[in-house]
Design brief:
This protein is α+β, with helices and mostly antiparallel strands and about 550 residues long. The protein has 14 helices and 24 strands. Strands 8-2-1-12-24-23 form a 6-stranded mixed sheet, covered by helices on one side. Strands 13-21-15-16 form a 4-stranded mixed sheet, with no helix packed on it. Helix 3 crosses helix 4 (about 90-110) and helix 4 crosses helix 14 (about 525-544). It starts with 9 loop residues before the first strand and ends with a helix.
Length: about 550
């Protein structure tokens, strides 16, 4: 039975940072807002993230004495995209409006952010790149101020900020972290990273009257005379409808947990793919909008934000298998090899990882890849859910052996090839060099994927101390796909004639990456979602 139609000025489908930023902005300007969240928890995939925000020309950057310009930032995004650049106008819009959005959120909504110090752009030595200042993150926030029980991220150390991790010695040098501060914050309920980011916006939205419903999947868009006039959704076992007066905003994430869309859009067999996104990221927004004539932007399935993940045995998150990022493969005493025992990428720079294994033929004879490391690595660095020096769960390892020949046999790869690969890597690593793939040459890789205390290079150390270990690697997604909806400068969804689908907006990773093509730069997705939420809300409220 279908209940009578409910109404609101604005309906937001999904509660990631783009959704809550939309809701908070519109509610602060007097609109009635309803957020419909498919999952049992609020925050989406951005709530599980490090909450990095790449905002060129922001006020905090200038406070540190760093200069920036729109031209430099657009040049940088163009450089990221390479031959697959799509829309310089979209890039310019983001660069111009993102600092404005952050300034508004700080002045009017109570958002508190800070610069992540000493964090360079991915390509800081490229056109328009910067060594510091463009990365922002939320300041810690007391959970008592957040009007919902937001989940802790299973991927990141709650209780620490990005800036602190780098100040304490590196993102993966856990033995150097200030565990006293981390433990105290956890005990006192002080949120950081993605939890804090969602918390700030949710606090503002709810204080201004926004209503949030979880476990409420939207199943269809309501369309009358070519205009999106509302949504159909499920709640408390009933099918209901809501018809907002201002519009519908899709913030449904990507398609990470939809095997069919993964294989169609990413060109990789789903068995090789894992995700750090919430399991509700199944492409709902893509499907609903496409059925109503929305235009999809389709980019080659290379690059972007795909790195390596490892499975965490015996652990689930929101009733789905848990996988974790594996930036760790760029640390000293570790390499990545394909199924034949050969290196294939710069392991210290994750955009080069999975992209290097993309096979346009679909055969994927080089799969599965493995992380190979030695006892030195195990004693010094974490991996998966295992802290330095601790024993790995038996089911975590793909192989363990006292010599490389035995390790290769267990992995069913050629022993001579693997041995030669490691020996060649070792010879160069001892000198802090990698002439084959340039590992250790990227400044961002030093900071985020290396050990700043290791000489002569933060990313390079030989594999010489047995036993040797192998862990299977997966192509990792984090709700950032190559296919998504095309929107205009006000975040309105466009049709195939590039005309707006009246009444329909989209923000976040349901949108195509038109600003950066197949390139990526951490903080872009959160920053764009937040900015587009601001722009969508302004457009809707101004139209009221």
């Amino acid at each position: 039975m279908t209940a009578s139609r409910e109404s609101s000025d604005l309906v937001v489908v999904g509660s990631g940072v783009g959704g809550v930023a939309t809701a908070a902005t519109a509610a602060a300007k007097g609109a009635s807002v309803t957020i419909l969240e498919k999952g049992a928890v609020i925050g989406g995939s951005s709530g599980l993230s490090g909450a990095q925000l790449w905002i060129p020309g922001n006020d905090h950057m200038r406070d540190l004495g760093h200069e920036d310009s729109v031209t430099e930032a657009v040049d940088y995004l163009t450089h990221l995209a390479g031959d697959h650049y799509a829309d310089e106008g979209a890039a310019r819009r983001y660069v111009e409006r993102a600092p404005e959005a952050v300034a508004y959120f700080e002045a009017e909504l109570g958002l508190e952010v800070q610069c992540i110090r000493n964090m360079p752009d991915y390509h800081s030595d490229g056109p328009g790149g910067k060594d510091e200042g463009r990365y922002l993150e939320p300041q810690p926030l007391d959970r008592d101020e957040i009007p919902a029980d937001l989940p802790n991220s299973p991927h990141l150390p709650g209780g620490a900020t990005n800036d602190e991790l780098l100040t304490w010695g590196g993102a993966f040098t856990a033995q150097e972290w200030d565990w006293e501060t981390i433990t105290r914050r956890r005990e006192e309920g002080i949120a950081t990273m993605g939890t804090a980011l969602i918390g700030y916006f949710l606090r503002s939205a709810v204080e201004n009257g926004a209503v949030v419903h979880t476990e409420t999947p939207v199943t269809d868009l309501l369309v009358e005379d070519g205009e999106v006039v509302g949504v159909e959704y499920e709640r408390d076992g009933e099918t209901r409808t809501m018809t907002p007066t201002g519009g519908v905003v899709l913030n449904t994430g990507a398609y990470d947990w939809n095997a069919s869309l993964i294989e169609s859009f990413e060109g990789t067999p789903a068995e090789y793919v894992a995700s750090a996104a919430v399991p509700t990221a199944t492409g709902d927004g893509h499907t609903m909008a496409a059925l109503e004539g929305a235009k999809l932007g389709v980019y080659p399935p290379v690059g972007s934000a795909k790195g390596f993940f490892v499975a965490v045995p015996g652990r689930e998150f929101l009733e789905a298998p848990l996988y974790r990022y594996c930036y760790n493969v760029g640390l000293p005493h570790a390499i990545a090899v394909n199924a034949h025992g050969e290196r294939f990428c710069d392991e210290s720079f994750y955009p080069k990882q999975a992209a290097s294994l993309y096979d346009p033929t679909g055969e994927y004879e080089d799969f599965p890849p493995y992380m190979i490391f030695d006892e030195q690595y195990r004693q010094k660095y974490p991996l998966g859910s295992t802290l330095p020096g601790k024993e790995f769960p038996e089911e975590f390892l793909a192989a363990e052996a006292d010599d490389l020949e035995d390790l290769a046999h267990q992995l069913e790869m050629d022993a001579e090839t693997l041995t030669a690969t490691v020996e060649r890597f070792n010879g160069h690593a001892e000198r802090g060099e990698d002439p084959d793939f340039g590992r250790g040459e990227n400044a961002w890789g030093h900071v985020w994927g290396g050990d700043p205390g290791h000489d002569p290079n933060p990313n390079l150390g030989p594999l010489t101390e047995p036993p040797y270990y192998a862990v299977r690697l997966y192509v990792g997604l984090s709700s950032m796909g190559n296919v998504g909806l095309i929107t205009d400068r006000n975040a309105r969804v466009l049709d195939w004639n590039d005309d707006p689908l009246e009444g329909l907006y989209a923000v976040g990773s349901v949108c195509a990456p038109v600003e950066w093509g197949v390139g990526y730069q951490s903080g872009l997705q959160n920053g764009r979602a937040m900015t587009d939420g601001y722009l969508a809300a302004l457009d809707i409220v101004d139209d009221e």
